[in-house]
Write a structure and sequence with these properties.
The complex is a heterodimer of chains A (237) and B (330). Chain A is α/β, with parallel strands linked by helices and 237 residues long. Chain A has helices at residues 42-57, 76-93, 102-113, 150-157, 169-173, 175-179, 197-206, 224-236, and strands at 5-10, 16-22, 25-32, 66-70, 96-100, 118-124, 130-135, 141-148, 164-167. Chain A has a five-stranded mixed β-sheet, sandwiched between helices. In chain A, strands 8-7-6-9 form a four-stranded mixed β-sheet, with helices on both faces. Classes of the chains: A alpha/beta (237), B alpha/beta (330). Chain A binds chain B through residues 43-48, 50-51, 61-62, 76-77, 80-89, 91-93, 212-217, 219, 223-226, 229, and chain B through 39-40, 44, 46-47, 49-50, 53-54, 56-58, 60-61, 71, 86-87, 90-99, 101-103, 319-323. The complex binds zinc ion (ZN). Zinc ion (ZN) binds next to α3 of chain B. Residues 112, 116, 137, 139, 269, 298 of chain B line the site of zinc ion.
């Protein structure tokens, strides 16, 4: 039987995150994390880190069983670099693709550490907003990925009985709003706030394969111009 | 099949993939026009980038099918690195890099403007340097001196709008849809090109261009005529406006030929699809080369053509390749 080799990556935040597992064993977990104020390096670093991971695993591209790609929500340009890279890989070597929720990957790691809690994964959505989604202790998702203002976070997450843990870069930015609603946010140096390659691979292993020809990111937000055009059209009707 | 190149171009709103053989002959040239930007009166960068991502794989598959090749028979991958809309470019760059890396194929990074020049090198009727090349589109307007197949020297550039932008803005003032070139040319057919005397920025020195004056003159002409007379004389306005832009372009071309001592001229870019401009360039009397319209507007065949004369990226540079935006490094 051939090995089950999974390469997974995510470019939904400023970081470029890559992982490789073979038969469930972590072979490489790599990341390029820009400092505050530095621009993301997705285009420059993503394939470099992928090749580095393959080298660590002693594998070539054609030996991969599956590629998992984080489809957000997150920064549009980053998401497209990840998705276009995945599309190119499947065109080149026919590897199976799996679209992964970047927020679910964050939540998956946190659930191991806080098994009895609801987990809210919160990403920075810019414009003073957060991308958020929430999972119950049993793993079921109760809040779909959406963009919302910090003032709405509490109402959105306060529904259940179990204590709520919020993780992710957005949880750090909106810590005050969250904590004032009795939602706990782990220390800012906790690894739970950043995506890790190993978790991405784990999520990719159980994900449904997706159609490679058009891997559509979870944009959540529509283009501003589209919304403006619709408003103009409605005003003229 | 020796030396077949797969090329990808996503710098603006056309999702393009093409295959050229080693001799520069086109085996496939797929152009998926996004056709969505007209309702916005211009290209919306975020919408263009989203469309590229959903159209590009299909365009590549179609190009390979048209060429009756598989990736096994492709020997090089070429991609537009810039200048253009950065989010749009990155879709093509990321996908091209992934194909090249996973297939262990050499990758060639191509400058979009070099691509427009290289549309003139496509077989079966390549135009050999040296020549003066006018590149005019919605994003760029420049005159280049082309001494060899792999580079060019800029003789002059626009100081404000690109020629294609001038067409778009004039068309909008006349109530025509975006992109403005084709409908304006069609309307001008029924008009008198000498009816209005629009300026060609003759006072702008050397081989530089300016289209701010002609645009303002049209605006004033429309204002002075008033609504009723404007709608009556739309065709005359369109014909005179188009003639002024064409005259501005060919005047600089003549200057560039004088200045360079060359007597060979080629054109490229979307505006090079304009009928009156094509006629005016032939009328210059120099040896001229005008690519067919589909090779003047953005396409990936021109990117593959440019790649024939450019070196491969090193393996490390190919993995780390980034795009550059308009106004970026060339
Ligand atoms: Zn162009």
């Amino acid at each position: 039987m051939t090995a089950n080799a999974i390469l997974a990556f995510d470019t939904s935040t400023a970081a470029t995150v890559v992982g490789l597992t073979v038969d469930g064993v972590l072979c490489a977990e790599l990341a390029d994390r820009p400092q505050d104020g530095e621009r993301p390096r997705h285009a420059e670093r993503l394939l470099e880190l992928c090749e580095e991971a393959l080298t660590a695993g002693g594998l070539g591209w054609a030996q991969l069983s599956r590629v998992g790609v984080g489809v957000g929500p997150g920064t549009f340009t980053g998401l497209r670099i990840g998705a276009a890279t995945a599309q190119g890989l499947t065109q080149a070597v026919g590897v199976e693709l799996a679209a992964l929720s970047s927020l679910e990957a964050l939540a998956l790691a946190a659930r191991r550490q806080y098994p009895g809690s609801r987990i809210a994964a919160v990403a920075d959505a810019r414009r003073g907003e957060a991308y958020v989604a929430c999972w119950e202790p049993d793993g079921s998702q109760t809040v779909d990925a959406q963009a919302c203002a910090p003032t709405q976070l509490a109402a959105l997450l306060a529904a259940g009985e179990a204590p709520v843990i919020a993780i992710g870069e957005g949880a750090l930015i909106f810590r005050q709003s969250l904590e004032s609603a009795a939602i706990s946010v782990p220390d800012s140096d906790s690894a739970l706030h950043s995506l890790a390659g190993g978790t991405l691979c784990q999520l990719a292993a159980s994900a449904r394969p997706s159609d490679g020809a058009s891997l559509i990111p979870q944009y959540v937000r529509r283009p501003d111009a589209e919304i403006a055009l619709e408003a103009r059209t409605a005003a003229n009707d | 099949m020796s030396g077949a190149t797969l090329a990808i171009e996503t710098s603006c709103d056309d999702t393009c993939a093409a295959v050229l053989d080693g001799d520069g002959r086109i085996l496939a040239n797929v152009i998926s026009s996004q056709g969505i930007h007209a309702s916005y009166g211009g290209v919306v960068p975020e919408i263009a980038a989203r469309r590229h991502l959903s159209l590009l794989s299909v365009a590549i598959e179609a190009a390979l099918a048209d060429a009756e090749l598989t990736l096994d028979q492709i020997e090089r991958v070429a991609v537009t690195q810039g200048p253009g809309l950065i989010g749009a470019l990155l879709v093509g760059v990321a996908q091209a890099k992934a194909i090249a890396a996973a297939r262990q194929l050499p990758l060639v990074a191509v400058d979009h403007l070099q691509g427009h020049v290289a549309a003139n090198f496509i077989a079966p009727d390549p135009f050999e340097p040296p020549f003066v090349c006018l590149i005019a589109s919605g994003g760029h307007t420049l005159l280049a001196r082309v001494e060899d197949h792999s580079s060019f020297k800029i003789l002059g550039e626009t100081l404000d709008d690109a020629a294609g932008e001038a067409f778009d803005k004039g068309a909008r003032m006349l109530g025509l849809p975006f992109p403005g070139g084709p409908p304006l040319q069609a309307l001008a057919l029924d008009g008198d090109a000498a009816a209005f005397d629009f300026p060609t920025a003759r006072n702008v020195g050397g081989c530089d261009f300016s289209f701010a004056g002609v645009k303002t003159s049209l605006l004033y002409a429309i204002r002075d005529l008033g609504q009723a007379a404007t709608s009556e004389r739309r065709a005359d306005l369109a014909a005179s406006y188009q003639a002024a832009i064409v005259r501005a372009l060919t005047e600089r071309l003549e200057r560039a030929l004088d200045q360079s001592g060359l007597d060979r001229v080629a054109i490229g870019g979307g505006v090079a699809a304009n009928g009156p401009l094509r006629e005016a360039v032939v009328a210059l009397g120099a040896a001229s080369h005008i690519p067919q319209r589909a090779l003047c507007t953005d396409n990936a065949a021109m990117i593959a053509s440019a790649a024939r004369f450019l070196p491969d990226c090193s393996a490390a540079a190919a993995l780390a390749l980034d795009a550059y935006p308009s106004g970026g490094r060339r």
